[in-house]
Write a structure and sequence with these properties.
By secondary structure, this protein is mainly α. The chain has a single domain, classed as Orthogonal Bundle (MetI-like fold). It is built from 14 helices and no strands. α2 crosses α4. The longest helix is centred in the first third of the chain and has 37 residues. 36% of the residues are buried.
Length: 298
Amino acid sequence: MAITKRQLPTFFQFAKNPNLSQKLMLIGLAITLFFIFLAFFAPIFQAWGWLQNPKDFLSNPIHQPPSGKYWFGTSRLGYDVFSRTLFGAQAALQVVILATALSMVIGVPLGMLSGYLGGKLDKVLLFIMDSIYTLPGLLLSVTLAFVVGRGILNAAIAISIAYIPQYYRVVRNHTVSVKTEVFIEAAQAMGASTWTVLSRYLFFNVIQSVPVLFTLNAADAILVLGGLGFLGLGLPEEVPEWGYDLKQALEALPTGIWWTTLFPGLTMTCMVVGLSLLGEGLNEFVNPRLRRENRIRK
């Protein structure tokens, strides 16, 4: 039997005739993949050492403007800005992926358990998550960074705590609505254990919004990491990080040294924009209500 247009999967319909928001999602995907490519192949692209010893700084002149030798110029410490920016993408992706993955791994199971079991566990977890959610994310990350110290893993832990309540709340709300469905009640009547119900029947029905949260949180995590680096609480000084480089560059900006500020800041902005566009596009893709509204506008 021939497959009609109505029966085509949503993805193929989107690929055939994307609207404006879907085109923006493709742009966001392209930007995100570009930065992932740069981060993955940074050691191959590296032409100048970014981990120079302070004794060797004299071999790299300071505050050199962009040129054929120094594409993005050099900093006041003699670092090559292009190399620092390139490896900054690698450090940012490592921290962001770890932070969002940690928050997802903790928040999703807690949300499912809380929504499915209810009772005192649900009330306690709701109180804890709401308390965390009311705190500003950057302030919470800064406070935790003081406790856990600097480093890629420590920065990821400090950032991830702020995102756990978001995964928890979304997954819990979906679980509360899905657990009253007939197929869940049938599984319970047949004697299925809590683990079986959660893993086999609930999980794939409540995680539709998780990829959207993942991309949007990743965009926000880049800004938070930049804030930690700007305050000197993110990564060690020898590790390239855009926020720390911006802090160092601001001291030279009034003297006309613009390139040490422009390129790290522009790179951070582009990466955040790419992830944000990707997240908003995914939100429409997984949300039928948004798709219907866009069809009406057409």
